[in-house]
Amino acid sequence: MKTLSLLPLLLGLGLGGCDNTENINIGGVANIHFSGTVAGGNAKNVIVQAVGINSNGQPNRDSNGEFVADVFVTDEQGHFEGIVQGAYGGSYLLVASYHAAEAQELCRIDEISGGCRDGDGNTFVSGQTITVPPTELRCALADRLGGCKTDGGDAVSFNASYGVADDFQLWGVINQLEAGDVVSVTPLTHLAAKLALTEFVSDGSACTPSTCDTSLFLNGMFTSQSIHEANSRVQQLFSIDSAFHVQTPFWSPLIGGTSSDSIKLVEQAKHGLLTLSWPKFAQQRNESLKATLDWWQASFIANEGQLLGEDTREEALRELDLKSLYESAVAISSEQSDDNVSAAASVFNAIITEPLFSNLLNTPTNFVGSNFPVVEGELLVDEKIAKARDLVAKVQGWVADLENKEYASFFDEPNSTVMSKDFQTMSDKWAVFQQQLAPDVQGLFRPMTEFVNYALTCVRGEDSCDSVNYVYSDNVTYDVEEAEFVLSVNQNNDQFPKLSMKGKFENASTEATLATGFTFNETVVVETLLGKSTLLVTGSSAPKVTFSLASELVAGSNPDISAIDLLLPDLQVEAKDTGDEEFQDLIFLGENISLTMVAVSDALFPSKPKHFNIYKMEIPGKIQYGAADNAESMDVGLTIISKNAFTFYTGADDDLFPDLDFNLDLDAFKQYSQFGTVDYSTSQLGGWLEPSSDIEIKKTTSETVLYVEQFNYDSLELELKTILQLNDTQFSSGGYGALEYPGGITAWVIWKDTINDTVEMARQCLKVSGKWGCRDPQVVSGLGCGDNFGETVTSVRKVFEYFQEEGCIANVNIDGAGTYEIEYGASVITTNTPYAITFSSPITLGLGSFNLRIFSRFLDVNNDKRPVAFLNVLGQILDEEDITVSVSLTHNYLGFGSIAGISSADLVPYGSQTLHFAMEQHSGDGSDLLTYLILDGDVALSMVALDQSLENDAPMGYIRYAGSLVATIGKEGSLYVVRYVDGSWQLL
Amino acid sequence: MYASAQATSPAIAIEKFDSNWATASAGNYAQVKARAGLEVKLNQTWSVGLEQRLDYVLHFSEPTAQFYKKLENQGLAPGDYPLQLSVNAVMGTSFFAQYFIPLSNRGSFSIKTHVLQPNRVQDGQLTGVGHVAADGSSDYRYELDYNYDQNQLVNGNDYPVSGWGHSFDVQYKYRAGQSWSFTATWLDVLHRIYWSAINRDVGCLSRPNQADCFVTSKQKNQVQKLPVTSEVLIEKSLEAGLGLYLRASQWSRHDSLQTGVNAQGLILGVDLLTDAIHLAYESDMVRLKLASDQLALSKSKYLQVSLDVYWPIL
Question: What ipTM is given for this predicted complex?
């Protein structure tokens, strides 16, 4: 059931293909090969990853927070060859990891795709480990400029190699990778990537370096717009004209240019001069490259993605400013004889020497990036955000209106009320129907089972009918020729109930089961003061009741029924009208209703009669008013499978059959949907989730548990021996030990397969409801409920002593009552010592699974179909603490709309508008979970809340427009806040 | 050394200010002022000191209080409720210097200049309308312009804010004859905070949400102005150490008119406007004051406590 609640979430994610760039070649789309260079002066052995950014705006990470992506290693020119899967169409975070020590990386690229390479060109294939030596940089700064410095402060000459002392990462971010792309990862791309991630923070923080680093938290978010805007802003800030820095190679004195186009060479020189300023600043500031990079980032982010034009404050407070950066670039260029480099430097020089630059004294720049380009017809980000706001406003209106039974806002087109009128009419008629019939549901169905039950007593033998316990025994006649039983009550007077039934028994036994079936061969009518139910008999189908018997029927003994199956192929239920008409306009039509009840004894009071629990119930049907082709209807399907049907015993002695009064207070779930708790105290649940009515009596009992042993194989019960299939010799080396308690036995049997074996075998056997069953054999040494027993040869006594010590058999489940703790006391377990039992928890009848499906089948004035509305409730309620429920409401449902069984096609509520809510609540260590999915045309709102997520910083939900992320939903303080990527917010 | 706090909240008891306002009555403001500091008198003319300051001025219309009460407690009459609320609060540290000028043998003038370093701020206003329907349901929409270090609307995180400010305390004293004296005091004149970086939310909020109603958050610079407190004190000395006084003060929406007696340093007075009882003791070394409009202090709507200790160390 839990996976079902996740399925709709998958719909809410962007449909742009797989998020994981590691998977190779999904669906035959070719992989994308690209290449690039990282900064640092021919930086060798830098580990590069192209990390996919998922539909939540997060780079893919594993559970340890590590990036998930293939690794590529740079060669001695700082160059790498990369590959990503072609099916992935999203954005990438390029991560270049510089490391001080040797690293072990796993190659995940198969040979067909080219495998992996290390910095020396050695190839590896998927599954092999690559040993990556420490990162090796080469100094690209002229000695006249002071060369470079190691992180430890030692001087490094031009073209000499050196390492790093602190591990750090350089980032770049790009919206799309295409085959043949050449990328760069430099401090400038790093600034752009950090800006793209930090500009929107889902908890509303205004990020400064001292307040947050969203690269660590999940509440920063990449979007296509933020990536494009950041890259384009950095492009403008640092004076590149043709492309983003991440797409522009960078010049270095250690390697040649990559183009013959002089304009491109100047652009590359601009990028390269600024990149070289990084080690220059590190050298001047006498700090590590990592520290300088952090200082660049802090200066940039603190000014919200700008730089001061010139910072004249004292050294200790000074930020990286544009003037000092450009002056550094100019100084570097002065040591080069390359015309393109000189041209690049002159651009920088012109900027900082123009008169208007003085306006930026201690003032940040004011560059604004461009918007992510959209295809024709696609909305801009602001327009998408407006649509998302529309949805947020709509959803509140929908929920409020639906609670007040106003259906127009969800189901009707603007300025129309046709659907809501149909719902209102149906709702009104159903309310009157329910009001009339609800007190009398049992009265319409119970007479049938009681009649058949009585008839069953008659077939035990001659004169064996149980007239004492059947109030209408005098109204039953038996047609000897036809072997038919006929019941006729109040047919010729004006009294109620009026009962008319006729049918006969047939042998329904199989090889495995003893059974007899009663088939009605005329229409069954049960009419009370409040309503009438009619079971039609047609040529091909008839109502039938099948009794599964634990033993042959014997005159004078109650039938030993183990199960009852009802099949009602064609049922009509009508409610009486209080007006002029005899019956109300509304009718319930059931098709192939099936109901299975199982019999349960009370183990503490075995003399009590067996009671019946609903084990399985399937009610496909239709609520309808009007006639024939004009009939307005709703298809209703209810499927229930109970938990503990074989062990729960209702208390009341005269209540053999289940109570069918069921009224679920939906407010209980509404509380949980608002992060409260589920409260059933205002619901009537037809016997489900309630302890038996005599539970108070069963809480105190004088019954005990007895430990017994048996070493004579022949003395074991025949049924047990049939299962064990041992002989005396095998058994003689071990034995039988058991805890006997009311209604059951828990036993262990120990033996050796052959007399010379050094290892003993053990097998657990249980006797429940009079029947034995055994689990698979295992070695004795493996026994235990935590640590293993360890002994290979032992006695049953020692095994039970071990279980007692470890608490492995600390309690027993007594059928019809509950779980009881065994009070062993301080002494070691001994035979034939009665151990008292104390009540721990009751057995309740749970809903192992349930599904309610309702489809509207309304017609317009021309008898054409209106859009189908679909309500689906699916879940399980094992007890009051273990609940999994999902509820969805869809307008204009596009699926098949089947009410028979649980159709997989109907699990996904796809339509024009959908409200979907799912919750899980568990006892013990399991986490509670709440899920929302709301669809309105192209806009989707999804939200997942765990217990923990209410306390941490991660967003709880996201809003997307046509797959584009436009907002997050999070809890701030006690309020739920929707934060849009343009910086605006609303309270939810 | 001195410490003083003054809180006035006619709408609801001070103790219940953070509650659901179920017991709110008529009133349109809540104001708190607190000072604690150390002043060192250097000579007859100059004194300097350091002070921790809190100023909190909350103004609202009565319908706003009633509507808030309804939001928390239900049971309001159907109709429209115009919403208006403004908050003006700052907390910080000041360094001050006071200059005392004797004007004659009867009069004197002093001016205290505060240079302020603020660290907490709430400054904003909302205007809008709330609506209660016949079935008891409610909705609202209001425009918001809100500056803060911590967003109290969503109980958000603290953000650093930076700025500086100034204010001036001016006092004029005049003694007429042997028994009459007159003092006029203006506190927090030109009380301004110049924020260089403050968080600002501008927009609107509504319930239920409306597509065109949302808030935008930015960081901006802003000038915050706080109100002046004006006070006039007239004292009449009688024989045997007794005296009478009349004090009128005005602090934003709070007005006060006190009268009382002074018996050799022990002062008992009553505020004719707030019904508060003032009890004080003054000596050369200590000045202690307690004022409340309720005997049970937890139910006070006006509460003032101050303690000054004069310690001759120089």
Answer: 0.80
